[in-house]
Request: fold
Amino acid sequence: MTFDLTRHPHRRYNPLLDEWILVSPQRTNRPWQGGVESLPLDRRSRYDPDCYLCPGNTRANGQRNPAYESTFAFVNDFAAVLPDVPPAQIGDESLLRARSVRGEARVICFSPRHDLTLAEMSPAEIRLVVDLWARQTRELGARFSWVQIFENRGEVMGASNSHPHGQIWATDRMGAIAAREDQQQRVYRARNGSKLLCDYANQERHIAERCVSENASWLVVVPYWAVWPFETLLLPKSPVRRLPELDDDQRNDLAAILKALLVKYDNLFEVSFPYSMGWHGAPYDGADNAHWQLHAHFFPPLLRSATVKKFMVGYEMLAEAQRDITPEEAASRLRQLPEVHFTLR
Ligand code: H2U
Ligand code: ZN
Reply:
């Protein structure tokens, strides 16, 4: 018997995080039997008088949103990080160690329309979100070394409001996951003289089986080491360290590929697909960061249908992450899905 990645349990290496993941493809080699359960589409209205993100409405702290017409950013009224924190370093080398954190948290509204998602917005509207991400990165990067842009989409991911929005937490230190990516890219560059994620994108384009979508400037793959069933990695095709560096064409192409990916996601189970997504780019720490390649991660929790989600429990909490459906199979299903939203068919 010879080893076969499509049939035998194995572990795959994640070079960005220096971690392993267990893959058990034998559990899904049976034919696809899960029905497609469509959830009823909740028809929301364009404006919700009770929404704290809609234009002109009053937020929990009594402040009033402007009558914004495209995007809108404000400082989170219940911020997890704060700018005015006295510096402190407690318990240096002891087991009980703590450090102060300085930061700023913002909420970013993607559209004045309460009833849309990024997937339903036009590429031109998504382009304005790209510009907002880039602007916010530059602005917060002038004051903090790490700018974490993210979106929690859908109730299952803990989003507290269906108005299309994301968040930014900027801090004076990188988070632990970002720091590991930084270190792994640095070591790779020192060893190979090239960027880890540029080499990876080139390989995946050549192999093609994990590619989901591609245009002139961007590539979406289900990474070889994906943990979540339909996790994807969005990569620029040329070297870019941070969002603000993207030129006009790259921004338009980014809006187009985001539209394509998010429509595919919605079409997968014919539901507004939940996910957490976020951007990773070079820190603003004064170093040259030539090892850094900008990228976005999409982590959707759904596994088999609109209602069956993957749980990270048991073995995964205690040993390492595990998946059944192979990244190749997930990519193939996403690739074949139409780029027209199911609600418009
Ligand atoms: P989430 O849906 O990802 O939780 O983001 C919404 C954020 O909006 C959340 O972090 C903030 C919450 O603190 N918020 C305000 O800043 N003002 C409000 O009036 C309500 C919620
Ligand atoms: Zn709203």
Q: What stands out?
A: The chain has a mean pLDDT of 94.
